[in-house]
């Protein structure tokens, strides 16, 4: 069953699963079955990538099946994110392979492609009634050391995965962010046909997760 909490409303109707995707901070203590986790990560394989390189790698830790890895990932997350992320049953690190396999040259699109893959698995998770929350607040060096990530690979994102839970379980400030109406910039502010304009009054406060 899809998560229908705080569904995004846009100026055009889009696929429901896209409008239902959100970056929740409140998680249920319900465990995520191994086959569901694998189905979600399998969706990353459908993402496009430069030369079909598929430069994404994921390190996953589950509270129920790989608690040591879970704690290592949590330890690499900055404290302000740990406060809520520790409730999620699954944590993951998205890692980019920085060079092409076919010629060894630098892959300038590797991080972009990891983003595409992670966005794709986020939609699969939403379709199954789960949510992920992607974080920039983590220490790449701590994760590299914790998991012996070799040269040529770079951690680019950490995210939670789980079934959404009640916002009431969150600290006050975090709960307010969780319950705030979701808004997005109007199309006219980011879609330009024919030329590059100089948009007036860009609103950077219109990007709540």
Automatic annotation (TrEMBL):
Keywords: Oxidoreductase. It holds the Pfam family Nitroreductase. The keyword Oxidoreductase applies. The keyword Oxidoreductase applies. Residues 18-163 form the Nitroreductase domain. Belongs to the nitroreductase family. PANTHER family: NAD(P)H NITROREDUCTASE YDGI-RELATED, NADH DEHYDROGENASE_NAD(P)H NITROREDUCTASE XCC3605-RELATED. This is Nitroreductase domain-containing protein.
């Amino acid at each position: 069953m899809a998560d229908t909490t705080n569904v995004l409303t846009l100026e055009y109707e889009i696929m429901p699963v896209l409008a239902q995707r959100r970056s929740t901070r409140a998680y249920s203590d319900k465990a995520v079955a191994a086959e569901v986790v694998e189905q979600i990560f399998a969706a990353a394989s459908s993402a496009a990538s430069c030369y079909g390189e598929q430069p994404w790698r994921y390190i996953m830790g589950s509270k129920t099946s790989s608690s040591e890895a879970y704690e290592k990932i949590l330890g690499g997350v900055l404290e302000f994110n740990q406060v809520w992320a520790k409730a999620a049953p699954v944590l993951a690190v998205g890692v980019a392979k920085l060079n092409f396999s076919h010629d060894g040259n630098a892959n300038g699109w590797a991080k972009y492609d990891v983003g595409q893959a992670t966005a794709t698995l986020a939609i699969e998770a939403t379709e199954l009634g789960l949510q992920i929350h992607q974080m920039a607040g983590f220490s790449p060096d701590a994760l590299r050391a914790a998991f012996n990530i070799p040269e040529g690979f770079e951690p680019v994102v950490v995210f939670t995965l789980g079934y959404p839970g009640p916002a009431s379980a969150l600290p006050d400030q975090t709960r307010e962010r969780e319950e705030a109406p979701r808004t997005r910039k109007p199309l006219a502010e980011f879609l330009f046909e024919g030329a590059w304009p100089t948009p007036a009054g860009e609103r950077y406060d219109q990007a709540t997760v």
